Amino acid sequence: MSIATISPNALARRHAENKSLRLIDVRTPAEFQNAHLEFAQNVPLDQLDPSAVMGSAGSNEPVYFICQGGTRSKKACEKLQQAGFTNVVSVDGGTQACEQAGLPLIHGKAAMSLERQVRIAAGSLVLAGVALSLLVHPAFIGLSAFIGAGLVFAGITDTCGMGMMLARMPWNRRPVACSV
Fold first, then answer.
1. Residue 160 a catalytic site member
2. What angle do CA 97, 98, 102 make, to 5 degrees?
3. Which member of 2, 29, 81, 136 lies 3.0 to 4.6 Å from 176 by CB, making a disulfide possible if both were Cys?
């Protein structure tokens, strides 16, 4: 089943017409605190319970999902579709596209994006693997190979295991006032 999408400007128009529109931001609480649309609620993707989210939504009212760039919101829509809920829509381009479109965002305490955390962690592990293979034992090159294979897998499948692990770290779990 295909995922319905909406542009940031069309979302803003729909919100102006219907203030009870439900927008769920599936980023980590730290990313959400950094910047989010004022009417968004934060429910991290790994904590998303389809029944809880859709239980309070009217059967005719779609529920909109947003993330940083659009990948996680599409995964949230897929998760809800697999649970039998079809009236779900992903915001095309995510929060980045909303900011580029000039929509007003609430900015809070700056946090490092999950994508940047993945790049730092992957680069550090590759560098450590190379250094350990040169200084300790050649078998440590396997660490670099493992991380490289993981990055290739992430690129092919658009699923990042390291990103999912980092999203569960304490610094990405700051409590947020807005939640479902």
1. no
2. 110
3. 29
State the Cα–Cα distance between residues 40 and 179, nearest whole angstrom: 9
Cβ neighbours of 73 (radius 10 Å): 30
Q: Are the C-beta atoms of 78 and 51 separated by less than 8 Å?
A: no
Q: Which helix (H) or strand (E) holds 90?
A: strand 88-91
The tokens describing 74, both together, are 């599409």
| DSSP secondary structure, 22-61, as one string | EEEE-S-HHHHHHEEETTEEE--GGG--HHHHHHTS-TTS
Return the structure tokens found at 29: 């609480």
Element (H, E) at 122: helix 114-135
Annotated active-site residue in 67, 77, 98, 160: 67
Cα angle: 150, vertex 26, 82; to 5 degrees: 80
Q: Nearest 5°: CA angle at 72, between 125 and 11? A: 145
Reported as a single tens digit per residue, the pLDDT across 17-31 is: 988 899 999 998 888
Cα separation, 155 vs 128, whole angstroms: 22
Predicted model pTM: 0.70
